[in-house]
């Protein structure tokens, strides 16, 4: 069986008569060569289809993010430059025939962003240098102990230093900034100390290794900075800005979809549902934010990002944004609940819920605009005031729920307590909407936390005052 159809092993010649009858003239068995040909033909066709699908996906990745394609060209350029030390005899003799170490350095340390490349280059150079110095020291001390004691001293030094360096990788501070350097230290120290026992020209070997590592790292840094530089700091700043925009989109779509009329909801349900899922990208961005912030600390001042830019504050802003996204996720679950609130109650709370959602979204949009332009807004406090007023109005609306619904809830609660009846449907119907209103109030308080963190970031990074404010004073965001 092939693709749900029977594999034919015979070849037939048929004649169709005018009266509609069919006569089989010749029926031949297909030989093994013909069956092999058909199998090979199907295999090649399947390979071509899969290859074309893969190429289409790769093309879409390059079109959607051209920086990835540029990074590939930069890596190729760096490898082409460093390979000259291997092809040209003058350069090859200058590095003592160890040019392959420079090639390996480029392959290992060249990363997507400048910060990540600097992180690996500095760690590799520092790890190689420190390990080389210690290796020479241990080697000299082992020689002084005599030929019989020398291997014992080397073994003990390898054990102690390798164990200590490995343990340092579990320390959070070291792991965040020097994990790669610790690994290179272990590798280089073992090479120097162990090879030194059999190699006479140990100093020359270590010197050439350090030289080739420096050459490879220098080529990586120069290529990464001069050819379409990709800064980890800029990527982190853009990521936080996009997360704020996605948070606002999800908040808008959430309540538009919930309170929309049936006819309108059916037409635009797919669009709003897609926007409503934007918050999920925010929930999954913690790892990216932490790695970008770590790499950004290694980068020099560039563009609007000065020396000692407050990269740690970006992590606090990102944490506040995720806290708000978790609230939206819970809110979305309540909105999509199978239990539907009474339409009369939805109409009673609709205006207040939509108003608070809209004002909260406006605050987040202003914060996104502040991050995008790196300017302080003198009108953000007005939007926060409107959001707080909407919170008070929603709280009053919850207190003034129609008395008929309250009576039904009380009756259902009393019946449940007295076990006279189990009809708690009115209570179950109002609970989702009451939960939605409470979550929306909680969401507003979490938005204020985002405002506070962005305010601190604006102060620490010296954001300029928005020129549209018409004032030269620096206003606080809150």
TrEMBL record:
| Entry's localization field | Membrane
Q: Which domain of life is it from?
A: Eukaryota
> Which protein are we looking at?
Aluminum-activated malate transporter
* Entry membrane topology: Multi-pass membrane protein
The record's GO CC annotations read:
membrane
Q: Mind telling me which residue stretches traverse the membrane in this protein?
A: 68-87, 99-119, 126-143, 180-199, 211-232
Tell me yes or no: is Transmembrane helix among this UniProt entry's keywords. Answer: yes
What is the species of this protein?
Daucus carota subsp. sativus
GO BP: any one term? monoatomic ion transmembrane transport
| Listed InterPro entries | ALMT (IPR020966)
Keyword field? Ion channel, Ion transport, Membrane, Transmembrane, Transmembrane helix, Transport
Broad class of where this protein is predominantly found: membrane
